[in-house]
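Re: the 314-residue chain
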Amino acid sequence: MSQKRQRYQRKVQYHVQQRTSAKKMRAYYALFAVMGVAVAAAIGLIVWAYLESNTIPNPLASQTSSEAPVEDAQQNPEESQSPTGTNTGNVPLSSLAQNKTGTMTLELSQGTLEIELDGALAPQAVSSMIYLAQTNWYPDNKASCTRLTSAETFKLLQCGGPNGDQAGGPGYSYGPIENAPQAVEQEGTKFGVYTKGMVAMARQSSNGYSMGSQFFIMYGDTYIPEDAAGGYSVIGQVVKGQEILDEIAAKGLASDATDSSDGPPADAVDIKKVSVSGWPEYTQSDYFAAQSEPAASTDQTTPVPEDSADEGGK
């Protein structure tokens, strides 16, 4: 073979190799591009999932899991129109709490909780609880815990409504809001941080003088949006029996719950007995001074929430 032909063949082979290399490089570049997009998408999904799981519930959302704990007053709509800032009915004297702490024993059908009540920081709310406990109001009125929430940042069990629902109260409503936790702000909305084990009083939306018999217990850190009235009165802290709440929460919601994260607990939670220690056993005249004793009825109740249709009990 002539040298000229050999040089031609080597040239052809060189160009073929160059083209093959270029094709391989383009394929590598395309593969790298696809892999980059896939990695970016995966990172984006991870970030999105993290943000979703750690987002505080929107207080304006239609889901009931974003609705704050309130007392439903469907039985007395006229009273729900009363102005804020005024007690209704014969409210137990705030001096019953004597500016000191004591213990409330809450016997549920699943077990017993011990709650340390702070009569110094929440004298009116604790005084009311002393009255309700000493007069056996909760079991006499078949009170129970009818609302469980399970959103990532909204974990509570709401109790204290008479007759197995969240409509009604002890025949009076009171204020003001006491010992509400310090709020944090997110996207222009202030949220109270209610840590695990806290016990606070439920009330009507934007009305700080609508507390009665209903209360809620946190089984996990909970962020509740403040409204025009502010936060919620914290009366104490669970000091024994927190595992009872965890067990109730672990069983989830009842099969007929209309919301995936807010509704009746799977197993009925009845209040068997409520008792307090650390204070004297008061008489009827002690509770109300010169006032007459209020009837332990469920007809006079706290004001109706803004969206009572969503309330089983933000």
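Residues 72 and 256 are 20 Å apart (CA to CA).
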